[in-house]
Design a protein that fits this description.
This protein is mainly alpha-helical. The protein has one domain. It has 10 helices and no strands. It starts with a helix and ends with a helix.
């Protein structure tokens, strides 16, 4: 388990660093700062950052406060939920909107495909099963809801919309709110599915 998580952590951190370099290279001053903020305004990046820490902390410092937090089944299930939604949203909605090449393809593939797969495998094989409750799904929704509200607030101020379905300048506020509600429903249903899988795996192993 430790070896798997250590290797996975290196892969995820590599993908994040590569994407960041590709976004800010050749920039300085205000543009550099803006692109850094934009980098951190993608749900893909935030979910990958959580995955990177969740792989790193229990492997490097399992007894530390952060190591103990990210070892909790509820926390790890929340992260597998976020990374799975990242992959599903990209595959269904976003991948047909552009054609990354070269290093951008490497970063794109790592962040949207490799990280979700690595974390799903980790969750299936190494995360303790049977500790989740149906109500666990509600706190998991706080992060995507907060992210949606942040995007609604920052988008009109900066002119930057990380995803087309959050672009109020083209879709209007009402349509974006409908999209956010639909995404929240997807998070809820998928979160409940992970809890069900958790219970089924617990029974099978028992």
């Amino acid at each position: 388990m430790k070896a798997y998580r250590s290797i996975a952590a290196l892969i995820v951190w590599f993908g994040l660093l590569l994407q960041y370099v590709l976004m800010v290279r050749g920039q300085s001053g205000e543009v550099f700062v803006t692109r850094t903020i934009n980098f951190l305004s993608y749900f893909t990046i935030l979910s990958n950052l959580l995955a990177a820490v969740a792989f790193s902390a229990p492997a490097v410092a399992p007894a530390s406060p952060i190591g103990r937090v990210f070892a909790k089944p509820s926390v790890r299930t929340a992260i597998v939920l976020y990374t799975t939604v990242t992959a599903a949203t990209y595959i269904v909605i976003l991948q047909g909107l552009w054609d990354p090449q070269g290093l951008q393809w490497v970063a794109d593939t790592t962040l949207h495909y490799v990280t979700p797969a690595l974390f799903l495998i980790d969750w299936l094989l190494f995360t303790q099963k049977g500790a989740l409750r149906w109500g666990s799904v509600l706190p998991w929704l706080a992060f995507p809801v907060a992210y949606g509200l942040y995007s609604l607030f920052r988008g009109p101020l900066s002119g930057f919309y990380p995803y087309p379905f959050l672009d109020t300048s083209h879709l209007g506020l009402a349509k974006v709110l409908v999209n956010m509600a639909a995404m929240s429903g997807f998070f809820l249903v998928l979160g409940l599915a992970f809890i069900l899988i958790d219970r089924l795996l617990k029974r099978r192993r028992a």
